[in-house]
Amino acid sequence: MTVLKTSLRNFLAHKGRMALSAIAVLLSVAFVCGTLVFTDTMNTTFDKLFQVTSSDVTVSPKGASDTGETTSDTGKPPVLPAAVVGKIERAPGVKSAEGTVFSTSVTVVDGDKEKLSPTSGAPTIVGNWNANDARTMKITTGAAPRGSGQIMVDADTAKKHQLKLGDDIGVITAVGTHQARVSGIATFTVTNPGAAIFYLDTKTAQQALVGRTGVFTNVNVTADRGVTDARLKRDVSTALGTGYKVQTAKEVADANQQDVKSFLDVMRYAMLGFAGIAFLVGIFLIINTFSMLVAQRTREIGLMRAIGSSRRQVNRSVLIEALLLGVVGSVLGVGAGVGIAVGLMKLMGQIGMHLSTDDLTVAWTTPVAGVVLGVVVTVLAAYLPARRAGKISPMAALRDAGAPADARAGVIRAVIGLVLTGAGAASLAAAAASDHATTGSAWLGLGIVLSLIGFVVIGPLLASGVVRVLGAIVLRVFGPVGRMAERNALRNPRRTGATGAALMIGLALVACLSVVGSSMVASATDQLDKTVGADFIVQNDNGSVITPQAVDALKGTPGLQRVTEYKVLPVTMTTPDGKVSKNESLNAADPSYAEDLRTKTVQGDLADAYGADSMSVFAGFAKDHGIKLGSRVDVAFKGGRTAELTVRAITSDEVVVDKGAMYVSIATAKKYVPADRMPLDLLLFATAKEGQQDAAYKALKASLHDYPQYTVRDQTDYKQALKDQIGQLLNLIYGLLALAIIVAVLGVVNTLALSVVERTREIGLMRAIGLSRRQLRRMIRLESVVIALFGALLGLGLGMGWGATAQKLLALQGLKVLDIPWPTIITVFVASAFVGLFAALIPAFRAGRMNVLSAIATE
Question: Which sequence spans correspond to the domains of the chain?
Fold first, then answer.
């Protein structure tokens, strides 16, 4: 009980000094709990949606997906005949059966040809208004569509795009463009995760989406009272026979939820990973805090030992303080985590994914995990300082300063750090020299872990040398004040090393990812310059196919020399070695594609692969299956016949554009695939007539004005789009890493604040002999700057080493250009100096306000 009282008294006596450590724990726990609450809430939202929207049993064509998605390479959804509805209605246990038709392979535009698709990545759905949808939506304005000239829209989409009754709407599909006017607006009675939904009457939906009436994409079946879904499924399957997919409501909901779960799992683990980095950085802050508190209480601890306290009691006293810190920070972090989750939900609402706080889900495991994690990490971080406190002898009470550092421990630490760093460097070298990406990735991961731990352990040794160099470059211009700041940073290299290491971790990841991202862009740009011969590329940025109407419009553009179509056909191959390769694909293109893509071949000429009954394979596939020029491969086209194709070219694996592609001509594909099963174009390549590039560029954009879902890019645009995509991903990662950097900044603030308290008498003496308040504040700011620059220098150097090694592995995939983004690296390094200045504001201000006489009298 005495130990507990002592710990509580010390904790409350130093509550101001504990605050920043508590904030670090709070932020880390909040990020973990916020992630868990947010993803659990999204799961709850989708669970409710899928349960409510699924009929007792759903019947769909055999080729339809389990989730009900209808996107297809033909642009039309798979369908079943309307006569199936009658067969289902006559099955035992069926109360009702209703045919529905819908498609997600659509683009909807307003009267100004502006897309009405969600910006959140959610689908655009066009279908017929039916009883199943009426369960989850209520018509709040106007009426349901009647006749081909009417369409109904969901309220969220109407609000976002300011649609009202009578507005013109265009539905663009593979069949053509259907024009209608808004007849009604329907409001969701459940949470809408962001999809844009439009309704036509049944006949119009069939004609607009499929191109013919008398067919449905699904049949929603309702069971009689007392009939289970499993029994209903069995009876319906018996009535229909083979050739149809029959699913219960649970099976449909589970399939949909599995797709969502895959996305949410990636999001959850990524965000938890960044929270883990923040925890790791927080460990340095906590270690520094307790180390300095123990050093400042050396006399007090020595007196406790002198009056009978054992080492275990002293150790336990410090650990109890850490336990209190962990509990306070973690409990506050759990509450902040719920707030973060609500904030994320509001943010998702801004981009179109509507999540209701009514579905806010806080599982009991979330606060428990947050508190346990926060407390365990805090106590573990405080163990070393607590152990050090227990070793203080009673004689320390007779000394003014803390116990002298253990020189032997310092030597052992340096040796261990050097060994770990050397092992990490050797692992990185092995990764760079690896010929296989899998093996190289394992070496890279090991190298990153070992080198990071090595730098952390060897931090004090590095601080002694690096800080002197930085001091000579940065601090000496400030005269005596700069030299004092340098000496303060060197006074305790272990403390400086730990503080710098906290900042080093976040900046090392920033540098590594910057090098990787910049190298990817540079490599892809280099490959585009070398291989792409077409002037323009036309595609749908969401990966959907291009409708025949848009292809015709593009081909009619003046100023073009040629237009090349490009399709992807799913196939099954039987190779000369007798092996059957399922789930393969052939890229079918016009012969001019050999000019549009100057891909490297190891044997043959790619142009020959576009001859009749000819094809190409890539080198890795040829090696695995013993294929040579002239080999024959049996190719079974999905939805078509089997062809025997002759290999006329073998392409290199050392490419980026279309890496691993196998080619065939569209003419050959049409010979074996029926017209109604032929996939639509995935890409179009266009080349302008000599000297007409600018005019053709403008003409292409004008030709596709009625098809805003497609983007025309010249090579400059394409490179910029690639750069923007990678840049957006990196910015997202940088944003998540900002949490770790914020915690590191708190560590610098805390170190300086405690350092000022530790040096109270010294500061008083310096003020007494003439050091002005302004000079004192400058000294503390400069000390903070040099510590921040020390951490930045180590982090950026380490990160660039990681990134350069990772690029060597990317070179195995054809990305051979190493590009160091020096503007980013320099900007981060300079910004670190400002981070140091910011971190020193409060400690410097407090130091400047000290009363000189009181400071001198401090013991």
Answer: 1-54+266-404, 63-242, 417-457, 460-533+717-859, 545-708
